[in-house]
Design a protein that fits this description.
- By secondary structure, this protein is mainly alpha-helical.
- The chain is about 80% helix and about 0% strand.
- The protein has 12 helices and no strands.
- It has helices spanning about 1-10, 10-20, 25-45, 50-65, 70-90, 95-100, 105-130, 135-145, 150-160, 165-185, 195-215, 215-245.
- The chain is globular, with a radius of gyration of 21 Å.
- The chain starts with a helix and ends with a helix.
Length: about 250
């Protein structure tokens, strides 16, 4: 009976052909890569250099390269995670609400920091790109990348930039901010958790906010606030600024 059952099993190559053509493979690959990154991040005592998103990006990139999987095929499965990106961003309103009482007396400083951070983010990226002679279509994407990826992609469509490239710019900004933010803030002697969190939220978006939550609850709440306010202001101001600037 067992021998008869074994002879009826399809060859492993046929199974792989089926799985490689299924969107499920891309979804499993994405989730597994992030789980690996998160595990390494925890085992490194949450060292910012072991950023789970960065590890996941590297693993997925190498995997689809080795598998020779077209990006369109990969996205068929990964789009389920992509769909939750906006939902996860909106859900950050919960810790903001819980920590709303602590904002008393700090809103003026926070708004000033938001304006300074947003302007710096846009002008440094655009100024450097133009100095290097980057194509104008890419420059528009760099303007939009100053806010979190879901909002940045919407802004990119309004300013006639590539949403895909804008998302890449935004995610890259978030990864770099999450990795380097701790060291920059240490050098600047920013010690209060609410200050560190807000700075990460404004500069490093969702990935920086995730990093802040993994370190301290107050930092995470203020990072959520910084990212949310930056996204709202950016969605309103950036398209108008692009229309005037370009």
């Amino acid at each position: 009976m067992s021998n008869e059952f074994q002879t009826q099993l399809p060859p492993i190559s046929d199974i792989w052909v089926y799985l490689s053509g299924s969107p499920l493979l891309a979804l499993v690959l994405t989730l597994s890569a992030y789980l690996l990154g998160l595990t390494l991040y925890e085992r490194s005592q949450r060292n910012p250099l072991a950023n789970p998103v960065l590890i996941a990006v590297v693993v997925v990139t190498l995997s689809i390269r080795v598998l020779d999987m077209p990006y369109a095929k990969y996205f068929e499965g990964a789009q389920f995670v992509h769909f939750l990106l906006g939902t996860a961003t909106v859900s950050l309103a919960i810790p903001i609400y819980k920590g709303f009482a602590s904002l008393k007396g700090r809103m003026g400083v926070l708004l000033l920091s938001l304006i300074a951070g947003g302007i710096t983010s846009v002008f440094t990226a655009v100024g450097m790109a133009r100095w290097l002679g980057v194509d104008e279509s890419l420059v528009r994407g760099l303007v939009a990348k100053s806010v979190t990826a879901p909002i940045a992609m919407g802004i990119a469509e309004r300013v006639q930039a590539s949403p895909t490239l804008t998302a890449i710019f935004a995610v890259s900004t978030g990864i770099l901010g999450a990795i380097l933010g701790r060291y920059v803030l240490d050098v600047l002697r920013v010690t209060q958790w609410w200050q560190r969190g807000f700075a990460l939220g404004v500069a490093a978006h969702g990935i920086g906010t995730s990093r802040a939550f993994s370190v301290n609850a107050e930092a995470g709440a203020y990072a959520s606030l910084g990212m949310g306010l930056h996204g709202i202001v950016g969605a309103v101001v950036i398209p108008q600024a692009v229309a005037w600037w370009f």
